[in-house]
Amino acid sequence: MQLQQLFSPSVQHTLDVVGIFVFAISGALLAVRKNFDVFGIAVLAEVTALGGGLFRDLVIGAVPPAAFTDLGYFLTPLLAALVVFFLHPHVERIQTGVLVFDAAGLGLFCVSGTTKAYSYGLNLTASATLGLATAVGGGVLRDVLANEVPSLLRWDRDLYAVPAIVGATMVVLCLHYAVLTPLTSGLAAVTAFVLRLLAMRFHWRAPRAWNRRSTVTEE
Amino acid sequence: MQLQQLFSPSVQHTLDVVGIFVFAISGALLAVRKNFDVFGIAVLAEVTALGGGLFRDLVIGAVPPAAFTDLGYFLTPLLAALVVFFLHPHVERIQTGVLVFDAAGLGLFCVSGTTKAYSYGLNLTASATLGLATAVGGGVLRDVLANEVPSLLRWDRDLYAVPAIVGATMVVLCLHYAVLTPLTSGLAAVTAFVLRLLAMRFHWRAPRAWNRRSTVTEE
Amino acid sequence: MQLQQLFSPSVQHTLDVVGIFVFAISGALLAVRKNFDVFGIAVLAEVTALGGGLFRDLVIGAVPPAAFTDLGYFLTPLLAALVVFFLHPHVERIQTGVLVFDAAGLGLFCVSGTTKAYSYGLNLTASATLGLATAVGGGVLRDVLANEVPSLLRWDRDLYAVPAIVGATMVVLCLHYAVLTPLTSGLAAVTAFVLRLLAMRFHWRAPRAWNRRSTVTEE
After folding, report:
1. Where would I find the Glycine transporter domain in this sequence (chains A, B, C) (predicted)?
2. Which positions in chain A touch B122 (Cβ < 8 Å)?
3. pLDDT tens for chain C, residues 1 to 219
4. Domain for residue B212, yes or no?
5. Which region holds residue A150: left if phi is over 0, alpha if psi is between -120 and 50, else beta?
6. Which of A51, C160, A143, C28 is nearest to B147 (CA)?
7. Rounded CA gap, C12 and C116, in Å?
8. Is residue A85 part of a domain?
9. Nearest Cα to C153, choosing from B36, B128, A37?
10. Enclosing domain of residue C142
């Protein structure tokens, strides 16, 4: 369990809450766009911010999950929902700023998710997979509840999962070679963060299946 | 665990089965409307009736969940599916009656869900949240499986979650002040029930985000 | 736990990996049809292949689930995703062959899922239900993520769940009468397999609700 204390507990908690807040903003904005009411905005904020970590905690057997034991984790998305409820035109206007924070959340969550899974005894591959799930799972649940194809899976979106995979992989390599420190895990988070920013800036996208045009009809 | 015995076990079990039955009816009716076959009707009845409690049990670590250990809980939705399969035009005709029973289920489940979560050691906020999830979770899963936007989140539906939130909040207040008795929890369930009936009667709705029309395109 | 050793461990593991592979192929093919990128193909392959077993393991409290502890289970869907990524026109061409393998996966998973649930102490009904969920759950998750109505629930698809229900029921009957051996469980798997093949060959379908045309509008 010591592994979780990469940073001092208060620093780690602050980073978590920041990540939760920015993910919640993205959920609340989608809810506004889908014309949901204030309750729907709050639900989508909660699910987006806490869904990935909830899935990870159920899989590793950390029940009740942190989402239900830490009051700060629960209240932060409600605050984000309120901000979006009253100020969403302003939040929309700073959409780029929101995406930068979302990229920061992605970096933080892939590192903390991987570390927590490993501290519960999962092997390196499973830990990295759960780190990825922690980072992107909330967004997938958000899109499923909003009845949209998860933007994570669409080819016409800039790379989102790959930066998280790189960050999670750096963490498990550090774990394997016993060099995981606040510095190296900070480096992994920053790498994922910067890769995501670059993917947005240069519209990096992943390839689709080979020869698909010849045989598959566009939908 | 004593907390769960608010009513005599047989009374509690009967109330649970009634709530499961009416939720299952709503799932089965949606399946008929979506043109599913008899198996799809049964699946949607099961998921709607047991999904909320299943989620709660996974979160609090009560495995295997009650949905899989109590044969009565499992068979009741199948009975509801059969009723809808053969009699659905009649069930549709008494749609208002079904909605009244569904409101009763909402009241019962938000109380029993909150109480069970608290008895597993969760804090008051988390208990109320899980009580809400118990009451509305099955309906959300029903809509996701039917590939529709969850009616819970739509602004153009009468208040559904708010009555459950009020009921769950009353339960945690009673727990906090150590005055949870069959009487007070019955009162909480009835309050949620009556609020839902009033919301349907007067079409109470929750507000959407401020100024949304000015900046967001309707979909 | 001895019950799980119906076959020698290596035989059982091989059968599991075969089932995982063919389910992953079906997920990857849907991802190509939905125009997902290579990452989306991999995710849908993983979810389709491992989702049913993951749900079963969470319900019976077998955490961390096998999907996260067995590296072979995790890597097999990635292999299937690669095959589809490069060769999908060829895989599409042998669609019938894929469906035959998928039917084999259905037979294998309903038997192994039922047996594992029973070995964790669930009653016979719950074990059969989880066997069914193991066999069909991945496909449901696949369709939900692809934002489609689960083909499992649609009336216009050949019977898929019923063969799995028959297989799972045979297993619990064998468990009840203490005659579950490699032979009888193999027989249950083959029965489910053959029933599914017959359902595809003769387009067997389940009935929809009685009198539905008279009162329900087609969507």
Report:
1. 14-88, 100-174
2. 64, 68-69
3. 344 455 677 778 888 898 999 999 999 999 998 989 999 999 999 999 999 999 999 999 999 999 999 999 999 999 999 999 999 888 877 778 788 888 999 999 999 999 999 999 999 999 999 999 999 999 999 999 999 999 899 888 899 999 999 999 999 999 999 999 999 999 999 999 999 999 999 999 988 887 655 444 444
4. no
5. beta
6. A143
7. 12
8. yes
9. B36
10. 2-204
pTM: 0.92
**CB contact at 8 A, A29 and A97:** no
Residue in chain B closest to C147 (alpha carbons) equals B147
**Shortest CA distance from A54: residue in chain B:** B59
B153·A39 Cβ contact <8 A: yes
Q: Which helix (H) or strand (E) holds A111?
A: helix A95-119
Structural contact between residues C14 and C42, judged by C-beta atoms closer than 8 angstroms = no
Domain contains C212: no
The answer to whether the CB atoms of C32 and A208 lie below 8 A apart is: yes
CA torsion angle B185 B188 B194 B199 (round to 10): -150
* Cα–Cα distance, A122 to C74 (Å, whole number): 13
Sign of torsion, CA B93 B96 B100 B106? positive
Cα(B156)–Cα(B204) distance, rounded to whole angstroms? 10
B32–C60: do the CB atoms touch at under 8 Å? no
Residue A66 in tokens: 């942190």
Average pLDDT, chain B: 89
Q: Which residues contact A202 (CB under 8 A, 6 or more apart)?
A: none
| Cross-chain CB nearest to C60 (options B38, B64, B74) | B64
How many domains is chain A built from?
Answer: 1
